[in-house]
Design brief:
Layout: E1 13-18, H1 32-39, H2 44-65, E2 72-74, E3 92-95, E4 100-109, E5 112-118, E6 123-132, H3 141-145, H4 148-155, H5 162-179, H6 203-206, E7 213-219, E8 230-238
Antiparallel strand pairs: 1-5, 2-3, 3-4, 4-5, 6-8, 7-8
Helix pairs in contact: 1-2
Length: 242
């Protein structure tokens, strides 16, 4: 595994936000479709955390694009369905009159969210994942979620450290799948091998075309203001050189 660090290539900006600190009166920044999605939550806590995350992500994307949050138009992309509401799936925004495209990603865990955004045209996808504590440290995780190579690597780790190792692998898997716009609901996590510096995915899962480059790395929680008990990862899909 790579040591915790910011990505070696830095065409993105990362930030962490405490969800309970977000002013929910700023839902005026959101599109109608996003507010409708929030209304589908029966839990007030989940609804408010959803809204807080969307507000925080829009403000983050607006800062990257150099526009006001109200000048962003949500343009999400979903590879898993045919819905055309532009407010679910992979986060993407069109910014201002110049229609600059902002690729973004969001992950929530407890009262925190990790945000990523970029206007770099070389990127085909951005994904982040955030987990609290040893979220993937339960017994039997390896048989369900790890590839054969990952299971071999896990056996090399001291038993006391395996829960943390598993959680680091899980955040990498989630970040990779978010970067290509796929979800764990339709992709067997054992098909996503992130034991090395470059993820290995079957063609029917990757679906990015050509031979894109990858940056997959851990995120040092302290570097973005997260509690040190959290584990996070970022994945970038870079367009192949012509």
């Amino acid at each position: 595994m790579n040591r915790p660090a910011q990505p070696a290539v830095q065409p993105i900006r990362l930030a962490a936000v405490r969800l309970s600190s977000v002013d929910l009166r700023q839902t005026e920044f959101l599109d109608d479709g996003e507010r409708r999605l929030a209304g589908a939550f029966t839990s007030q806590v989940r609804r408010e955390r959803f809204l807080a995350g969307r507000i925080a992500l829009r403000r983050h994307a607006a800062e990257i694009a150099g526009v006001d949050p109200t000048d962003l138009q949500a343009d999400y992309v979903c590879r898993e369905c045919t819905r055309d509401d532009h407010v679910h799936g992979m986060p993407r925004y069109q910014a201002g009159s110049r229609k600059v495209t902002v690729l973004a990603s969001l992950s929530r865990a407890e009262d925190w969210c990790l945000l990523a955004a970029s206007t770099d045209g070389r990127l085909l996808g951005v994904g982040v994942d955030l987990e609290s504590g040893g979220a993937a440290g339960f017994e039997g995780f390896g048989q369900v979620a790890l590839s054969a190579r990952e299971q071999e690597e896990l056996q090399k780790v001291e038993p006391a450290l395996r829960a943390g190792f598993q959680t680091r692998l899980w955040t990498r898997k989630e970040a990779v799948l978010k970067a290509i716009g796929r979800g764990l609901a339709v992709v067997d996590p054992a098909l996503v091998d992130v034991a090395g510096s470059v993820p290995l995915l079957p063609d029917h899962v990757a679906g990015t075309g050509g031979r894109p480059g990858w940056v997959v790395d851990a995120v040092d929680p302290g570097s973005v203001g997260l509690p040190l008990s959290f584990t996070a990862a970022v994945a970038l899909v870079v367009a192949p050189r012509s």
